Amino acid sequence: MTSEGQRAAEAPSIEAPSGEGTPVGNTAAGQELMRAIVQEAYGSSDDVLQLARIPRPQPKDNEVLIRVRAAGLDRGTWHLTTGRPYLLRLIFGLRKPKNLVPGLDFAGTVASVGSAVTRFRAGDDVYGFGQGTFAEFTVARQDKIARKPGNVSFTEASAVPVSASTALQGLRAGGIKPGQKVLILGASGGVGSFAVQLAKAAGVEVTASCSSSKIDLVRSLGADHVIDYTREDFADAGRHYDLILDIAGNPTLGRLRRALAPSGTAVIAGGEEGGSLTGSIDRAFRALALSPFISQRFTMLVNHEGSEDLEHLAGLIEAGTLNPAIDRAFPLEQGQEAMRYFDAGKARGKIAVTI
Length: 355
Hints:
Number of domains: 2
Number of helices: 11
CATH class of the largest domain: Alpha Beta
């Protein structure tokens, strides 16, 4: 999940022509409207997401207004839709999300810029980190966006910012070096599909864990070895790894330790197990508390949103080293269905929402 809180939205005022969204209030005269997926409560996507027309955001001095062409769907967006684990609500809103519109990353075209923006101008194709990207327009700080790689579509580019930067920073946090043996847990999802490619490009021997139906995808991304977790436990295979990138977020610390080399590092980048209150956050903190007392090292990743990594990733994409793996794209009108498909856990790579 991204490290910074979402921007608090103004009270929604929505006026929807027939078939273009659900009314949620009154619109002030002269306001420009846009279509967006909105969320006024926590819960399942079927219960809390709806298509509406809301006021178009206005960029601040250091922000850029983006005409969104596509937005990525990731686990962080799912957490902020459901409001689980509940601990997250202390940051993102106790009773309802502070941000009316979900979505954390995007690809699109600059519509206008704030008075302090110097790096971009109207008409530039960009991608990056935003708040409320499941909409026709979003705003983003200029230090959180970069020019879109020219050899991929908007849909493909929208899959990159959150997931690929998480993979990149996770491998860096683990001190990845050429010649190492690296295990990636959760290798077939959004973050994992990028992690396999980035690790292979770093010159390591990559072992990837995924389910039976996704083995062919993971092999196509460059994995040297694939573990089908429905048939084999990585911790009992007798192999030891210099670095484990744990995106799946469900192995116990004991299992991670059994698979680590004596001086190996485990980076905890995901967490889908645990209770509704804290999720797997307690596991991550237990790992950090244990790390100083053993020869192995545990660390927890908190993703940093910045243009430097986006520019680096764009270079890898344009060089053909990194390719976004898109399972499917849903139009904005099918936002509920997109979230439902994500929640089912069947995606091979990333899911995108096109606008």
